[in-house]
């Protein structure tokens, strides 16, 4: 029964950033006057009395920040509404973040991360960023080619991407990870200022961001968490098995399997006895102490009211979201229900041992969606003549193919063909030739053991190296990343354009039901078929002797 109840509770979706690193910034950033809720599959906004101010009409919706709320329409496009529910910035983006410090990042379809202001005006674009997060203290964290750096509000790269990982700026410092050591390098965390200078040298196994000028760090020698100040001095000895961040001069810590709270001096003020906890806000913290049983305590560790709940968001202002019987409502600080549980989803739920994020990238960071299909198509058709393709023609023999390094190991596929399964990258991290197969004009091996010409590969199989090529088939695949995902049709069309640009006098035949196109010239015939993850290209070499009487 308990397991079934836990599975049911998972319908409450979490879409807030982990309170371990962003709690204080979120509390200041967002407005809680209107709360996004979902009912009957659509999202709208209620006030703190439970009345719909903006009727349910969106696929997704999030909290207001800078007087705008990020929403997703029925087409899956992101835009921003004002408090009247009308779009102030039209829903035209594939990815988008909340507004933070007056700016947001958006990514239009097949485009790059773009910084906009609250009017929708473009401030700058980040062409080389793989993804970028919202602004925090005037800096935005981004990743480029696997390294992390920071950009300022002018679009200037304030700190070039050079770190293995990083967290956003808080209290003027950002946690960054670097490789240390020579023969056996390891990842260590430290803290930099906004000039990129280390203020706390990289020495810790793990860290949390600074909050209230204190940060939890995990030391290597004992694998325990302690607290440092902004100068890097250890002000609370490493002794905890886990921890969160300080808020209202109190932090949650874990000893063994139980959570409790300490003050800024490191003294335990609430004994570890809970399965999970949320940060203090307004002097009250949510604690999870029995299966599917959340309640609230004050700073003395005393329960503030007897009522308990299935799940909760913790307090924001004077209210908290709670769940009862798999429905969501609101309570006040007396524990009284002010909005009857009736909604399916809300903006924030922390569940014990289950922290789920619904499309987190839609709200906190954006991906680069730019995909140059033509560039990849041009690269594939670069090595091409009127009678040869990628250095192959009808005179190419099995021996020549087997000696070419880029084809890797050839494996027997059938009596007349061989198969190559070594992938060849066209564009690193984006597209590759995942497999190649070769078809020959004559058998490539003899079965009879008495035939000893050729290359013997088994007891009864002897390859004939002089067998000549008839056709070659390439399987092209797009990598499953955010830039290439869903772009197969775009790539397929670019291949057809690239082929047409390189060979004149092509005769085209369309086969819509088979998603393929056949193009024939004097000495080459191409069949290009659209596949789920890319395209298959069959190149056939037309021997002139076929057309002689």
Main features:
Methanol Dehydrogenase, Chain A, 2 domains, 9-stranded antiparallel sheet, 8-stranded antiparallel sheet, 9% helix, elongated, disordered N terminus
Write a brief caption for the model.
This protein has 549 residues and is mostly beta strands.
Describe how the helices and strands are arranged.
Elements: H1 2-9, H2 19-29, E1 30-31, E2 35-39, E3 42-46, E4 52-58, E5 60-65, E6 68-72, E7 78-81, E8 87-96, E9 103-108, E10 114-117, E11 122-125, E12 131-136, E13 139-144, E14 147-152, E15 157-163, E16 165-166, E17 174-180, E18 186-192, E19 198-204, E20 206-207, E21 214-218, E22 225-229, E23 234-240, E24 242-247, E25 250-255, E26 258-263, E27 268-274, E28 276-277, E29 285-290, E30 293-297, E31 311-316, E32 319-324, E33 327-332, E34 337-343, E35 345-346, E36 365-367, H3 373-380, H4 398-403, E37 410-412, E38 417-420, E39 424-427, E40 431-440, E41 445-446, E42 455-456, E43 462-463, E44 469-478, H5 488-502, E45 507-511, E46 516-520, E47 524-530, E48 534-541
Helix pairs in contact: 3-5
General description of the model:
By secondary structure, the protein is mainly beta. It folds into two domains: 2-367, Methanol Dehydrogenase, Chain A (8 Propeller), CATH 2.140.10; 373-547, no CATH class. Helices cover 9% and strands 46% of the residues. It is built from five helices and 48 strands. The strands form ten sheets. Strands 37, 38, 39, 40, 44, 45, 46, 47 and 48 form a nine-stranded antiparallel β-sheet that branches. Helix 3 crosses helix 5. The protein is elongated and about 90 Å long. Residues 1-26, 348-361 and 450-454 have low confidence and may be disordered.
